[in-house]
Each structure stands twice: as structure tokens, then as C-alpha cells.
Design a protein that fits this description.
Strand content: under 5%
Number of domains: 1
Number of helices: 3
Helix content: 55-70%
Order of helices and strands: HHH
Number of strands: 0
Mean pLDDT: 80
Shape: elongated
Low-confidence stretches: none
Structural class: mainly alpha
Largest sheet: none
Length: about 60
């Protein structure tokens, strides 16, 4: 997964006495947002317009 850098920073702060900087917080927020977007569930079916577009493209392609 993408969380080891976040845990690495947290452990460095706790065990090594590193200072928390704004870029650590920004990086953790970006990683969290990426994990959220990659793992969220989309319960809605695809929009009808997209299905029709795919069907038209498939029908118009040469064989």
C-alpha cells in the first residue's frame, strides 16, 4: 500500500526526535487522499450517456 512513508515519518518523529514540518503534513494528506480515492466504492452504475457512447463507437468501428 502507500502508507509506509507516513508510518516512517511518524516513527522518525517518535523515536528519532525529528521535527514535524509542514511538508510532512501535506505529504500525509496527499497519501490519505490517494488511498481514499483508490479504495472508495462506487455504488452507482455508469451513466447512461457513457454506455450509449461506447455502444455507438463499437457499432461504427470497421471490421
Amino acid at each position: 500500500m502507500n502508507l509506509p512513508p507516513v508510518f516512517g515519518v511518524a516513527l522518525a518523529i517518535l523515536l528519532l526526535g525529528e521535527h514535524l514540518a509542514p511538508f510532512h503534513i501535506a505529504g500525509a494528506a496527499l497519501v490519505g487522499a490517494g488511498v481514499f480515492m483508490a479504495t472508495r466504492r462506487e455504488d452507482e452504475p455508469p451513466a447512461a450517456g457513457r454506455v450509449e457512447t461506447v455502444a455507438v463507437e463499437a457499432a461504427s468501428s470497421p471490421r
